[in-house]
Amino acid sequence: xxxxxxxxxxxxxxxxxxxxxxxxxxxxxxxxxxxxxxxxxxxxxxxxxxxxxxxxxxxxxxxxxxxxxxxxxxxxxxxxxxxxxxxxxxxxxxxxxxxxxxxxxxxxxxxxxxxxxxxxxxxxxxxxxxxxxxxxxxxxxxxxxxxxxxxxxxxxxxxxxxxxxxxxxxxxxxxxxxxxxxxxxxxxxxxxxxxxxxxxxxxxxxxxxxxxxxxxxxxxx
Length: 221
Hints:
Layout: H1 2-15, E1 62-89, E2 113-144, E3 149-160, E4 163-174, E5 183-185, E6 190-199, H2 201-205, H3 210-218
């Protein structure tokens, strides 16, 4: 019994790959330049100033990404082919004679070669896919590039009744596309990577068993 339990545990562990980690590595901190006037009350690198812009612009700042993705793809193809051929070869006369005297009906009586062929094919295929994703994820600025571009990355993990839902967002945004309330739409992100997946009982039930996957790979029909 112990050996059987060990084998079952091994099959279960190897059949399901581990989920990717949703915890993002903290971004590196920018080196703060020395203040020219130590006695001044103004701090250009300070946060929470009265008239300061609250939009993210430095490494480590947080920006809210409104994920609004709608995908609709439809493709339809129809192919019809038809081909027919007919071949008939015969000899009407040979050496000036319509018939050979020794072989009655040997010349011109019937075709020597006669063949016919036909080929027809008809195929039709249609595919349709539709998906909608709406959520909000807080991301951090991981890198500030030139021309006002910033790389942002963020993740959110929610666990309800034993089911875990993970959202990962990563991409490049322009500082001028960030609204005054420090939010930006996911449609304004370049090189966007948006992942939504889960783990738990429901996710496990939606996955085919290991024996079924093996049979699908080796079954030739």
